[in-house]
Amino acid sequence: MTDPFLTELLDLALEAARRAGALLRDGRPADLGVTATKSSPIDVVTEMDIGAEKLITGFLSDRRPADGFLGEEGASSEGTSGIRWVIDPLDGTVNYLYGLPTWAVSIAAERDGERVVGVVEAPMRRETFHAVLGSGAHLNGEALRCRPTAPLDQALVSTGFNYVTEVRAHQAEVAQRLIPRLRDIRRGGSAAVDLCDVAAGRLDGYFERGLHPWDLAAGDLIAREAGALTGGRPGLRPDRDLTVAATPGVFEPLQALLEELGAWHD
Predict the structure, then answer these.
(1) How far is residue 38's CA from residue 5's CA, in Å, rounded to a whole number?
(2) How buried is 5 (Cβ within 10 angstroms: 0-12 exposed, 13-18 middle, 19+ buried)?
(3) What CA–CA distance (Å, rounded) separates 17 from 191?
(4) In sequence order, what are the residues at sequence separation of 6 or more whose Cβ sits closer than 8 angstroms to the Cβ of residue 8?
(5) Which of 57, 182, 213, 264 could form a disulfide with 242 if both were Cys (CB 3.0 to 4.6 A apart)?
């Protein structure tokens, strides 16, 4: 990577994610409980989500005060520099609450609306994923490539479930009809980690309905820079209706099957 400006953004994102990851890993109280809920009683926020977002936004604001923010726990500002940071301070909060290791800090930088830097820090896995637009994806400094193409019926695919009961019920119906068409399905609990696992060749594909920009901003860039294809419904970009990421040979048949099964609606 030769663009010094993007190098600066990447270095800031890496350091902010490292600091937030250390706070979450080392500062988790033994009696951690739910601070608030969002879309439903099982869509939880902990004091650590809030603390991590404050750490990230404070660190980045000190160094780039003109930048904007979009964060899961409420950070929102337009900025004047053309750079916006899209932050999920703790992706996989329920995993974190229960002491499961699959959670991550996700930070992306957008320049004039285009994602140019993505970092996903997974402290319990001792893994740092990053990507810069046009410069490839990396895990702990080593270049990443997604898996070679597999037939859809030999594809290992991950998904996630919404916290709203009615939406979850339909998602379960889609998964039930999808399982016989695949090698198998996994449910990791962190969209950011799932997208990075597609990039790392640990999954052939991933799909989910209901993601927010902060859930997918960094992971989507990392997956694409590792050679995966990403999108939403056919012809659309990933969005709240549907996010799909997969190896090139799996992407189109998986996307078409999800469209046929109505994975994007109740």
Answers:
(1) 36
(2) exposed
(3) 16
(4) none
(5) 264
